[in-house]
Structure formats: structure tokens, C-alpha cells
Amino acid sequence: MEEITVSQNQTVGSVMVVGGGVAGMQSALDLANSGYFVYLLENSGAIGGAMAQLDKTFPTNDCAM
């Protein structure tokens, strides 16, 4: 990850997150909120990883999607 700061203390740069699972999506969101341009790369046709395959989550029994 390359970080370049300009005179107004504004972060400039881009980063690639490899893996569109739960951790990859959260990392991409955190980096985007920090001011980076984010490229999210996923091998499969959809993001979500193993979480997208679940029907219900523990302990609340909420829908995973």
C-alpha cells in the first residue's frame, strides 16, 4: 500500500484488496473511509465468501444475507 500525503493532509492513493469475503469487504470499507481508492478483487462470481452460503447465523438466527 502506497500512501502519499498532500499539503492539506489529504490521503491520496489506491489499494487492492484480494478476497471478497467478510474480512475483505470490511477491509475495503475501512480503507475507503480512510480516503483510499479501493479495488476489491474476488476469484468467484459473487462476493461474500462462506458467509453467503449460510442460511442462518448464530446466535440470533438472523438471515445471513
List keywords for this structure.
single chain; 1 helix; alpha+beta; two-stranded antiparallel sheet; two-stranded parallel ribbon; 18% helix; 65 residues
Helix-strand layout with pairing:
Blueprint: E1 4-5, E2 11-12, E3 14-18, H1 22-33, E4 37-41
Average of per-residue pLDDT values:
84
Largest sheet: 2 strands, antiparallel
Determine the number of helices (DSSP H or I, runs of at least 4 residues): 1
Tell me the number of strands: 4
Distance between the termini: 31 Å
Form type: elongated
Major sheet: arrangement of strands: 1-2
Percentage of residues in strands: 15-25%
- The residue ranges in which pLDDT falls below 50 over 5 or more consecutive positions are none
What structural class do the secondary elements suggest?
Answer: alpha+beta
Helix content: 10-25%
| Rg | 15 Å
Order of helices and strands: EEEHE
In short:
The chain has 65 residues and is of the alpha+beta class. It has 1 helix and 4 strands.
What does this structure look like?
With 65 residues, this protein is α+β, with helices and mostly antiparallel strands. Helix content is 18%, strand content 22%. The chain is built from 1 helix and 4 strands. The strands form 2 sheets. It has a two-stranded antiparallel sheet with strand order 1-2. Strands 3-4 form a two-stranded parallel sheet. The mean pLDDT is 84.
